User: What shape does this take?
Amino acid sequence: MSRLGIFVDRKTMSNAEQLTALIRCRDVAENMGHNAEFLFPVDINRIPHMDALFIRTRTDPMNIAYVAAQMAAFHGIPVIDDPGSIRVCSDKINMYSHLIKKQVSIPRTVFLSKHDLTEKCVTRLFDTLGTPLILKEPSTSFSLRVEKVCDMDTFFHVARRFIKLSDWIVVQQYVESTYDWRIGVLGGRLLYVCKYTIPQETFKIQASVNGHIVYCGVQSVPEHDVPPHVIALGIDAANAIGNGLYGVDIKNSNGDACVIEVNDNPSIESGEDNCYPEVFGQIVTHLLKA
Amino acid sequence: MNKGTGSLFLQQDESTEMAMRSCVPCISYAGIMSPASPENSPPPGKSTSHSTSRRNPALHRDSFIELREGDTRHIISENYAYKTESYYSILRHELDGRTVKPSSSAVLDAYVVPICLERARLAGIPVCEWGISQGYAPSPSILYGLNYFANNAEYCVAGDEMKAKEAVAHLTNRGKYPFCYQKLTHDAAISTCIVVFGKTTGKCRSVEHLARQVYDLFAIPLVTMVTVSNSESIKLSSLSPTRYSQLSPDERTLLNAYLHHQVFL
Assistant: This one.
């Protein structure tokens, strides 16, 4: 019997579905004959006593999840998400740089320094990448600091807001689509596929519209119904980051697929895995196989 | 859509390269342009327009310097924080396959207290015992925030229960974030010490030794070390960034000596 730690932080738990998914994960591990227990931030010193760690809370190099990941890594304990994946995926400049290095298709992308936030530069960006443009603060999650801008004034307004949080920001060509493919990849192999249908009121998978949060629709899709080049691109993108668990977002407009982002710690609580009942079992097996 | 070009940074055409050299702002496609890149960074010690120091004009607020030693690049900065120019400069070198010190993982690890201490402990450096809490702090103890906005230089000392409660409320933004505590003995003394390339000025041998160990592990050229000592031992409590303005004349002279290759790494 192995001991699996599931690291959670109640502060970042936002809905009942997340809790249900955590319990399902624990039940799967226990049905496989393992001892699974939830670990909270105050339990970090217990991580070295685990055989594997599955982090199920918001990850960022500056928060407690990264402490948990490093603690596991220091002691040679298999961990999802590993510290390297957190470092890369939590920072879009780092993440896109890895994708570019491995020649993975992405929208046309520019990294803009705070020193280059000038009228001349911004004009060139609109001239080169077209209108509208997408601006991203590098450490955004759940599309929180992703904005679509159509003119110079809005560009400067948004960019100045983002520059307060990061010395560099991401400027990207806008790729229109009504849905994103989400390709779940574990250890370089396909884990699940779903579609995130973008709400009509916005261009993001989650947004605040008139004070109300609107969420994307989630539809799990069997592998045979997914274009093979989309799956291949998702796996290539995940492999450009590492050997862990990733959710790769892909737009496939007119058959020209491109990766929008690679997420560590992908959500698996809203029906993403309905067509893939073995998802948690595969994760547990992957973590404890060593 | 564009595919990666095979190298991380898109090939600059001649006009763009010229623009970089003349410091005219320009745009890099799918790549990072760092102001500290070899093409457009001022050499160490050269005067810049925002100089605040007569001893070393290059050391102005928020600037960083790249010092080469063979194939290794040392990034000297007063702020290596996540998503800063220094951090991205380090990252760019790593992505390009160059040897750079400190590494991006070292600077992230160094300033998150539990990670710093565990990494140091595993390397044989004496460290304070620590724990993570979301409410209770023992007294006396030294407390550090664990969140995006935490600054290790602003630690709190909880001498009694009342002070501990106040400190916890401050560090956790009233319970929003966890914090790290380190129990203190009643005879403990907390000290801070600036470390320049693993060296200190005017400190005792045990502090010098600790500073060297910390530099060997994290390779951060400029760092402030918080230590807790008593009659028996001296232990590392945390590391934090160091502002150039905090350097004493001796520390500035020491740093200058490195910048001008008068002291070899």
